[in-house]
Write a structure and sequence with these properties.
Blueprint (H helix, E strand, L loop, with lengths): L13 E4 L6 E9 L6 E8 L11 E3 L4 E6 L6
Antiparallel strand pairs: 1-2, 1-5, 2-3, 3-4
Protein name: DUF4176 domain-containing protein
Pfam families: DUF4176
InterPro entries: DUF4176
Length: 76
């Protein structure tokens, strides 16, 4: 599935990452991690917990997504 993701998933999408056990909700695209200066496809927060602070953000790339629980909102 992850090889087929050519465009970004919409914000609000809920996903599972390879090796992960927690659902994550995407809240940002093309994010740079402050400590490492590395660029990632997505930033996310635990679902359904939501945003708590910047230290609780998860950064990952599209190839790490193994399952999409829910697609976020698409706007034409």
């Amino acid at each position: 599935m992850n090889k087929n993701l050519k465009e970004f998933l919409p914000l609000g999408s809920v996903v599972l990452l390879a090796g992960g056990e927690e659902k994550l909700m995407i809240i940002g695209h093309k994010q740079i991690e402050i400590e490492t200066k590395r660029e990632f496809d997505y930033s996310a927060v635990l679902f359904p917990d939501g945003y708590k602070d910047a230290l609780a953000l998860y950064h990952f790339n599209r190839e790490e997504i193994v399952y999409i629980f829910q697609m976020g909102f698409f706007d034409n």
